[in-house]
From TrEMBL:
InterPro entries: GDSL (IPR001087), SGNH_hydro_sf (IPR036514). It comes from Oryza meridionalis. Keywords: Glycoprotein, Signal. Belongs to the 'GDSL' lipolytic enzyme family. One of its GO terms (molecular function) is hydrolase activity, acting on ester bonds. It comes from the Eukaryota. PANTHER family: OS01G0223000 PROTEIN, ZINC FINGER FYVE DOMAIN CONTAINING PROTEIN. This is Esterase. Pfam families: Lipase_GDSL. Residues 1-26 form the signal peptide.
Length: 316
């Protein structure tokens, strides 16, 4: 850990992504701020503001969102803290303020994540006739662009195992055959294989980017493996056996119903979110996010500065 301390004036970008900016030269605190880009997995409060602009429905400011840690809804799509919050706390930093709901300076960092955001703009999806895939909130940024603005330490998470996601499982329920499911986990095999393929391509792209920017620490953060660990061994992490069932939803085999959103009058919520992996659909509970964050944070604390070009973030 001591070998990391001399790395001054660095930034960590967690994309889903995020940027931790500026290591303390005194060594008391490795970074003083985080800049984050992403979607609902990392949105700490931009969604209510952004969705109101377009008169889009949003239930995240209704209970039971936020009740586990904050005691009230905060705009996060979970019962409590997200990975970003847990990493910030682990580094001794304050929560990263959502830029749309923050009127002060961004000297302490900023969160640009918005629920529903896509990496590519709507034109990409329209040109390829992909229905319903465009977003009003494209990130419209790139790692190259961020590094030109001074980002030096960048963490880029891969995809979750989408074939285990209750929305995907619900969508294919009754249509997929027994051979389409992993007999051990109940997840959809081909969708998980697609996510794994995406993650492999992402790692290849990051490898190329490292060669272009040898002075930057560009880290791939494994989001797939820790979620699979929880799905495969729910009791080990304190989760109930029906681990693919959401805590807050509208009924059905996975308690997920697109027409009955968590926070709505017809939705029901579990008594103990910490016993569930999934909170309202694809989003995890704070308990689930904690396992992912613990692995990333362990690697950040021990290896980011010492091994900036080769490390991967995964559970210790």
């Amino acid at each position: 850990m001591g070998s990391c301390l001399p790395c001054a004036a660095t930034s960590l970008l967690l994309l889903q992504l995020a940027v931790l900016a500026s290591l303390s030269a005194a060594g008391h605190r490795r970074y003083h701020s985080i800049f984050n880009f992403g979607d609902s997995f990392a949105d700490t409060g931009n969604k209510p503001v952004a969705y109101a602009w377009y008169s889009l429905p949003s239930n995240v400011m209704r209970p039971p969102y936020g009740e586990t840690f904050f005691g009230h809804p905060t705009g996060r799509s979970s019962d409590g803290r997200l990975i970003l919050d847990l990493i910030a706390a682990g580094l001794g930093l304050p929560f990263v303020p959502p830029y749309l709901a923050h009127g002060g300076s961004f000297g302490g960092g900023a969160n640009f994540a918005v629920a529903g955001a896509t990496a590519l703009d709507a034109g990409f999806f329209h040109d390829r006739d992909i229905p319903g895939a465009g977003s009003k909130f494209p990130l419209n940024t790139s790692l190259d662009r961020l590094m030109k603005h001074g980002a030096k330490s960048i963490v880029v998470p891969g995809m979750i195992p989408s074939g285990c996601s209750p929305p995907a499982l619900t969508s294919f329920y009754g249509r997929a055959g027994p051979a389409d499911y992993d007999a051990r986990t109940g997840c959809l095999r081909e969708i998980n294989e697609l996510a794994s393929h995406h993650n492999s391509l992402l790692q290849d792209a990051l490898h190329e980017l490292r060669s272009k920017h040898p002075d930057a620490a560009i880290v791939y953060a494994d989001f797939f493996r820790p979620v699979m660990e929880m799905v495969e061994s729910p009791r080990r992490f304190g989760f109930r056996e029906d681990v693919l069932t959401v805590c807050c939803g509208g009924g059905g085999p996975y308690n997920f119903n697109e027409s009955v959103a968590c926070g709505g009058a017809a939705a029901t919520a579990c008594e103990d979110p910490s016993a569930s992996l999934y909170f309202d659909g694809a989003h995890l509970t704070e308990a689930g996010y904690r396992h992912v964050a613990d692995g990333w944070l362990s690697s950040i604390n021990s290896c980011l500065c010492a091994h900036p070009h080769t490390m991967k973030l995964r559970r210790a």
